[in-house]
Design brief:
The structure is a single chain. By secondary structure, the protein is mainly alpha-helical. The chain is 73% helix and 0% strand. It is built from 13 helices and no strands. Helix 2 packs across helix 3. The two termini are 50 Å apart.
Length: 358
Amino acid sequence: MRTEGLFPAPLDPMHSKPPPRRSILAVVFTVMAVGLSLALIWMNAGSVLLIFAGVLVASFLDACAHGLGLILRVRRVWRLTAVGLILAVVLGFAISRGIGQIPQQARFLITVMDAQLDVLQHRLTAFGIDLLGPEGGRDFSRLLPDPTQLFGHVQLALGTASGLLVNTVVILCLGLFFAADPAAYREGIIRLVPLPARGRVRQVMNEMGLVLRGWLLGQLVRVTLVVLTMWLALYWVGLPGAFLLALQAGLSNFVPYIGPIVAGIPVALVAMPLGTSVLVWAMVVYFLIQNLDGYVIGPLVHREALQLAPAWTLVAIMIFGSLFGVIGMALATPLVAIGRVAVLRFYVEDRLGDFGKE
């Protein structure tokens, strides 16, 4: 019985060939380049998130231009210009119809909340509870993102308010640039990929773009519905500044689970001076609308777009919030959504060969 071939012969160390030196150096330099890139991204995470916000704006503009193409059979550049003009007209109309009064309403609501925090602090102190701290918990600036995380030295020089304005302008400009010619920016990234993989990378990037578009449009639908219904409900209950309270309640849905809970605190503080019945009605209305949005409207809107498990979404919000503040919490869901697409396509399907049901 021949046993040759069952067990390979031991390699002769005198005749075994060491790996080429050039390939070893290539691996070392590749690892160093990846590590350096990750370090640079981490050091400039605020600016990276700012760029990602610009990509979201570009997705919104591209979706609007695509929808307008169903009505106007003109070139894409003209459709994108029409979308910009329409948005500018809507914004100008909103400003002329009373958005300029929002700062005054905001100061009034902050005064009311500040007074109610004093009352709440006094009542808790009577029971020996110092829940709000020595400053009465009125450091509202802690609710805003750290100004040093967004544009660093520029924002510190211009101040928080002007820095936020600069960031908004930059996000809008990035969105316009990306939306003007998205294929050019996409192909510029794909050229860094080896030739055999370019088709697959292009396909996955297109899928990521559809996911971002679906998430953003779904969020805008949810925010609009929550703002309108909450505005009417709080106005019916009799709360002052109902529109501003409804607006912050609607925008809070960009941070799932945590945002609506935090946004309910101003509503409760404003309702407290108006009596127990008003407070109860305001809270019932608030949580009814938010639960309807969270458990009915949200899943219906995002069922096909994201397919994210709620637990992973909450974990992502907690991690990104602890690392990057409010802007990290707001962008956690879309970041995890496109990360899920990348892992499924490049690792699960291409690497593991698993093409089963997602």
